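Module 6 notes. Inverse folding takes a fixed backbone as the condition and produces residue identities as the prediction. Think of it as a translation problem where the source language is geometry and the target language is the twenty amino acids. Below is one complete input and output pair. Work through it position by position during the lab.
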């Protein structure tokens, strides 16, 4: 009988449309937008950067 499991080849997660992936604080808005834009190039999905005050407008839901 075998002694264990093989190593994981990859990880996967379900990310539904509208899900917040990253929140940024403690930096200027310009720095945050630039960092998120650079990070978006590394993701295998299309992303959109929005400000907190626009979330309610876009989703029709309240925050939290």
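Target side of the pair, the amino acids:
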């Amino acid at each position: 009988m075998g002694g264990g499991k093989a190593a994981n080849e990859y990880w996967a997660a379900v990310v539904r449309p509208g899900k917040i992936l990253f929140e940024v604080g403690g930096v200027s808005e310009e720095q945050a937008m630039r960092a998120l834009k650079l990070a978006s190039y590394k993701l295998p999905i299309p992303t959109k950067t929005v400000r907190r005050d626009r979330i309610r407008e876009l989703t029709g839901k309240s925050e939290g």
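Reference fact for the lab report: The mean pLDDT is 85.
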